[in-house]
Amino acid sequence: MSGEVDGESSTDHSPTQGAPVTTVLFDLGGVLVRIRAEEYMEELGFSQREKEFFHCHVLFHEEWQRWDEGVLTQEKLVELLSEKEPEHAAVIRKFFDGIERFVEPYSGVESLLNSLKERGFRIYALSNYPVEMYNLHEKKALPFLSLFDGKVISGFERSLKPNEDFYRILLTRFNLNPSDCVFVDDREANTRTAETLGIHSILAKNRANALVELEAYLAKHS
Going by DSSP bridges, is the β-strand pair 181-185/150-153 parallel, antiparallel, or unpaired? Predict the structure, then answer.
């Protein structure tokens, strides 16, 4: 799972106009899901040094991305990190044992998704997310996930954004026409790939602005 810190603006990359938009594709982390890494580590009682270790060596770094991709299990990830950094082995285990509390929905997400569905839009999730963490969050932390018409999650597919094949899984599995879709993601590499496949994209540097931009685009193109 990945997510960016809110920035200054959102960016609508694609100027093309075509068929009416019927489908909204969402990234999760940084768009619908808030990653509460700092608060979570505070709750665990981590020292400043331990927090810095996680930011510099664990969160969304190479091994984490392999976990996102389904190449590593959570247990193997913990093992590898502990072998590399034995002095931090105890806090590594502690962090991953409570990973359910790592995220929370942004305010208003369920209302947003329900509103889109009530207006006739299909909604899908396209997210880099490890299997074990996704399974935990789907059960409790992120109840809105049940509202999606379909989801493609990296850990289950052994692929991830921004690889084109990951997007093609979504398009093929759910018989989606790229020109009917709009995609919201907080990473430019991911929106660029969507554009190469003909999917209109909105880069959520600031999620609130991006959601306003999404509504304006849907009003104009649906």
Answer: unpaired
Q: Using DSSP, state whether 125 is helix, strand or coil.
A: strand
Q: 33-35 and 200-203 as β-strands: parallel, antiparallel, unpaired? A: unpaired
Nearest to 59 by CA among 101, 96, 106, 104: 96
In the three-class reduction of DSSP (H, G, I as helix; E, B as strand; rest coil), residue 182 is classed as strand
CA 99 – CA 133 distance, rounded (Å): 7
Q: For residues 96 and 44, what is the distance between their CA atoms, to the nearest angstrom? A: 11
Q: Are 100 and 137 in contact (CB under 8 A)?
A: yes
Closest CA to 98 of 47, 140, 145: 140
What phi-psi label fits residue 4: left (phi over 0), alpha (psi between -120 and 50 degrees) or beta?
beta
Residue 168 burial (C-beta neighbours within 10 Å; 0-12, 13-18, 19+): middle
Both tokens of 176, joined, read 């989606």
Model pTM above 0.85: yes
Q: What is the DSSP letter of 106?
A: P
- What is the DSSP annotation of 130-144? -HHHHHHIIIII-GG
Residue 176's CB: how many other CB atoms inside 10 A? 20
pLDDT along the chain (222 residues), means of 10: 47 56 98 97 97 96 96 97 96 96 97 98 98 96 97 98 98 98 98 98 95 96 90
